[in-house]
Amino acid sequence: MNAEIVGWLSSLILVSTISRQVYTQWRTKRIDGVSKWLFIGQLTASLGFTIYSYLVDNWVFVFTNFFMFLTAVVGEFIYLSNKRHAQRQQSGSAAQGGARPAPSR
């Protein structure tokens, strides 16, 4: 099998799985088990690997790492948005739970 085909298929699989994870995170608005450091590390590594891949003239990895960089940017924004959403819900629940209505007679 041609090495380029293996590379592009592997790239497609990786990009698809990461994109699906970011989509699920956006759809569910949950942050359980997701660390902001995941996306920060992915941003840094993907940018470095994109530059490296360009320098060694490997277009499969240029595409893959650049797309991974973009998903990390989107993932970080979604994470921060979901975190703010969760904090608003928590403070709204705490405010409602703190004031009890007077009992009716």
Features:
mainly alpha; 3 helices; about 0% strand
Overall tally of domains: 1
- What's the end-to-end separation, in Å? 81 Å
CATH architecture heading: Up-down Bundle
Helix content: over 70%
CATH structural class: Mainly Alpha
Low-confidence stretches: none
Structural class: mainly alpha
Percent of sequence in beta strands: under 5%
Largest sheet features = none
Shape: elongated
* CATH level-3 fold name: Monooxygenase
Nearest-integer average pLDDT = 83
How do the helices and strands follow one another from N- to C-terminus? HHH
| Total number of beta strands | 0
Whole-number radius of gyration? Answer: 21 Å
- Number of discrete helical segments: 3
Write down the oligomeric state: single chain
Q: Which helices and strands, and how do they pair?
A:
Blueprint: H1 3-28, H2 36-55, H3 59-98
Helix pairs in contact: 1-3, 2-3
Tell me about this structure.
With 105 residues, the chain is mainly alpha-helical. It has one domain (3-84): Up-down Bundle (Monooxygenase), CATH 1.20.1280. Helices cover 82% and strands 0% of the residues. It has three helices and no strands. α1 runs parallel beside α3 (59-98) and α2 (36-55) packs antiparallel against α3 (59-98). It is elongated. The protein starts with a helix and ends in a 7-residue tail after the last helix. The relative contact order is 0.14. The mean pLDDT is 83.
In short:
The chain is mainly alpha-helical. It has 3 helices and no strands.
